[in-house]
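TICKET: design request
STATUS: open
ATTACHED STRUCTURE:
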């Protein structure tokens, strides 16, 4: 049980990192400010701030998020949005002053006293503003007025770089009022044009539609692209493969008539060598009913046997729970396996093809659920079932666990593309509507859609958990 829980948490952690990294990298690449990259949901356990982003670990597992500037903003940034932005600028200034070494050596007297974090920020930023204001107009104006070489040197010594326009505006206000808190309150209420423009330049909601679409799409895309990469890695390392060895021969079926016996190993069909049970199955299903010439190795025989079998078409239950006419010969595998390793080029080719086939199978399966062809209770599983399956695959070894992760990664990518509010697909639907209308949906309408989406997801989660429990009890 413990192994199942650990394996499930590890898989989800990897997939969440991959998914959120897609959003994160796309946002950074397109110039959007990322405030937090969190694995797990609040409360925040700990984290490290690097650059503009807080990399955090949350107490609630099995999830994560990327928070961008203006993520919850309406049509125009209000005082609260600007105030939050100014707090981020404060962290930028402190981070720069720490990196340059100035804060430790020159502001020790101003910052060494014991106090709260807010008191520390107040004293430190006031010290930075004072240091930069020692020479006249040391901080450049928002209009970009030039400064002297001495002033530029002062900026580089304190921050290790020149302050941005938004940082300059805050520092001038701090110096004018003598208080960081008062400066933030003043700027948040006044919302000067240059500061608002600086905010909009880096905020997610004010980006062009194509940029927002790309950032949201990047999450599911990362999961979908991660699957073939992991599949290729597994094939390079080696994957346990079911061998074409007969385990059972059904009565009154073509295999028995042709003379096949348990323990027979089929090495070729119509002269084409086969190495796996899947190749045998695909050859039979794709025969169209034509006779198949089998080359068979049998224990006790020195030479291979050559047998002819004519497949029979029977209704077989598919992956989706419905009966489909399928060409069969009436055999099942013995369960014998061997580790099959691929060369680099063969792994790339096979990994890409197999992932594409699995992707198509999952898409069809989800479509069958909505069509009502596949029973929902049999098709859907929740965290309990996933943990059970993860534990089972972990017992089998790395390759089986990795292949299970491939499937979950594809499923996560596909499900997140569904047009359900709160999922990435829901946001993409909003963007499509915005593109058609020429303007965004009203904030109130988006909020209602999000509430409906939350209700649907809560009901679905409750259903799959109860469904998992019923499987165990029943």
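STATUS: resolved
RESOLUTION: sequence designed for all positions
ATTACHED SEQUENCE:
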């Amino acid at each position: 049980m413990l192994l199942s829980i650990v394996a499930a948490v590890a898989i989800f952690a990897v997939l969440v990192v991959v998914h959120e990294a897609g959003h994160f990298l796309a946002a950074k690449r397109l110039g959007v400010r990322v405030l937090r990259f969190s694995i797990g949901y609040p409360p925040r356990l700990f984290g490290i701030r690097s650059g503009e982003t807080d990399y955090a670990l949350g107490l609630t597992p099995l999830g994560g998020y990327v928070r961008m500037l203006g993520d919850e903003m309406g049509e125009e940034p209000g005082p609260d949005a600007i105030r939050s932005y100014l707090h981020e600028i404060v962290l930028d200034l402190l981070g720069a002053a720490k990196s340059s070494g100035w804060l430790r050596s020159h502001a020790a007297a101003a910052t060494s006293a014991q106090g709260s974090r807010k008191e520390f920020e107040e004293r430190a930023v006031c010290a930075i503003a004072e240091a930069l204001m020692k020479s006249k107009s040391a901080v450049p104006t928002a209009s970009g007025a030039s400064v002297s070489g001495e002033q530029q040197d002062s900026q580089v010594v304190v921050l290790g770089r020149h302050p941005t326009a938004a940082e300059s505006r805050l520092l001038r206000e701090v110096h004018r009022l003598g208080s960081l808190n008062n400066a933030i309150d003043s700027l948040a209420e006044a919302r000067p044009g240059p500061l608002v423009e600086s905010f909009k330049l880096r905020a997610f909601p004010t980006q062009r539609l194509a940029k927002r679409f790309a950032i949201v799409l990047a999450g599911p895309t990362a999961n979908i692209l991660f699957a073939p990469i992991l599949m290729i890695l597994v094939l390079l390392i080696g994957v346990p493969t079911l061998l074409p060895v007969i385990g059972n021969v059904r009565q009154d079926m073509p295999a028995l008539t042709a003379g096949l016996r348990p323990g027979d190993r089929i090495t070729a069909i119509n002269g084409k060598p086969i190495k796996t049970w899947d190749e045998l199955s695909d050859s039979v299903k794709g025969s169209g009913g034509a006779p198949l010439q089998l080359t068979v190795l049998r224990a006790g025989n020195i030479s291979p046997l050559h047998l002819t079998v004519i497949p029979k078409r029977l209704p077989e239950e598919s992956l989706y729970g419905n009966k489909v006419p399928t060409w069969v010969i009436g055999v099942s595998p013995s369960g014998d396996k061997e580790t099959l390793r691929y060369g680099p080029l063969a792994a790339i080719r096979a990994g890409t093809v197999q992932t594409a086939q699995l992707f198509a199978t999952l898409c069809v399966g989800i479509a069958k659920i909505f069509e009502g062809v596949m029973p929902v209770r049999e098709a859907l599983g929740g965290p309990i079932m996933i943990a059970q399956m993860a534990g089972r695959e972990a017992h089998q070894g790395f390759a089986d666990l990795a292949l299970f992760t491939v499937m979950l990664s594809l499923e996560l990518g596909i499900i997140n593309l569904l047009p359900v509010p709160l999922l990435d697909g829901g946001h993409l639907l909003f963007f499509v509507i915005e593109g058609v209308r020429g303007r965004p949906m009203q904030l109130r309408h988006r909020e209602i859609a999000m509430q409906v989406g939350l209700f649907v997801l809560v009901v679905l989660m409750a259903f799959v958990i109860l469904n998992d429990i019923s499987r165990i009890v029943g």
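CLOSING REMARK: The mean pLDDT is 85. The first strand starts at residue 34 and ends at 50.
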